[in-house]
Amino acid sequence: MRIGGIYYRSVWMEGDPAVVKVIDQRKLPFVFEVAELHRAEDAVRAIRDMVVRGAPLIGVTAAYGIYLAGLQSSAGSWCKEIRQAADQLVATRPTAVNLKYAVERMLQEVDCGGSREGTLTRLFNLAAGMAEEEVERCRQIGEHGLRIIRELHEKKNHEVRILTHCNAGWLACVDYGTATAPIYLAHDRGIPVHVWVDETRPRNQGARLTAFELKEHGVPHTVITDNAGGHLMQRGEVDLVLVGSDRTTRTGDVANKIGTYLKALAARDNRIPFYVALPSSSIDFQMERGEDIPIEFRDAGEVEYVEGWNEATREPGRIRVVPEGSGVANPGFDVTPARLVTGLITERGICRASEKGIRTLFQK
Hints:
The chain is α/β, with parallel strands linked by helices. It has helices at 40-48, 55-71, 78-90, 97-107, 116-156, 170-173, 180-188, 205-217, 229-234, 260-269, 301-304, 355-361, and strands at 2-3, 6-7, 11-12, 20-23, 34-37, 160-164, 193-198, 221-224, 240-243, 247-249, 254-257, 274-277, 283-284, 305-310, 315-320, 333-336, 343-346, 349-351. It folds into two domains: 2-133, Four Helix Bundle (Hemerythrin (Met), subunit A) (Up-down Bundle); 144-361, 3-Layer(aba) Sandwich (Rossmann fold), CATH 3.40.50.10470. It is built from twelve helices and 18 strands. A hairpin with a 7-residue loop joins β3 and β4.
């Protein structure tokens, strides 16, 4: 995708095999800045502090973190250092299954009885390959999800009004995005769309990242408060709800950014299709129940303060919005039961949010 007309991915390497580059998403949309990862510790901080965020991107960044751990390791203890880095990376964000999935895949290439150089070559190739896999998965999600948008346009004969939550765009997914991939393809192929963008408190990934992406791509959109979605649905101004997923169980329960469950309830009450777009790397085939998904509780400061752009100083800043001494709870995700999900849009096609439905696409 593009920023200012220049093509970017959200993680990449160029020239130097010891440097991984990412877009610092904490500073968007006010400042565009590229951060460099030189060591596994840099990847850990980038994931933990949300320099990078979004389940597919977290997984790829962790994969590169394993590679960097091996690259910067000591000759006599390289295998131990790689495994230590793996433990640190997995501990950063517990909800997104892509993280664990990526680290486990990378560790399969670590041969402690073989040569360090051979292992490094395999780690580099696998990390780069995983990035390409996520891009291709998202492109295919876009093609499958495009059918839904096209059918709605043909049925309603007006622009398709889509509500989304958080950021499931190319910034979160290396390229294309999950929930945004069908939107971008529809826009590029002449199907009129308009996106209602939830601000997504407390970190405002919708207002800051999704709106930024859509603006750069020229997609019509409007930012709304998180609680406005139900009102718009009642008024008949939403045709489709399209969100991403950080982890989906094999039975179709979906963990996504906090507030997703409420959108699903409102969509069900107003008979509006609610689809979840996700790559297979976000499906936890080992987990059956949504209530077993670990929910990350984040720092109270994200709720106590609002970050934004200070027009006076022309710099990013933050202000307190919660009285000192008030308690704060900050769960990062909620779980939408499969019964509220119209369907899952994956790289292999669209299926029901159920164990049987998922098995029709992923038999092994």
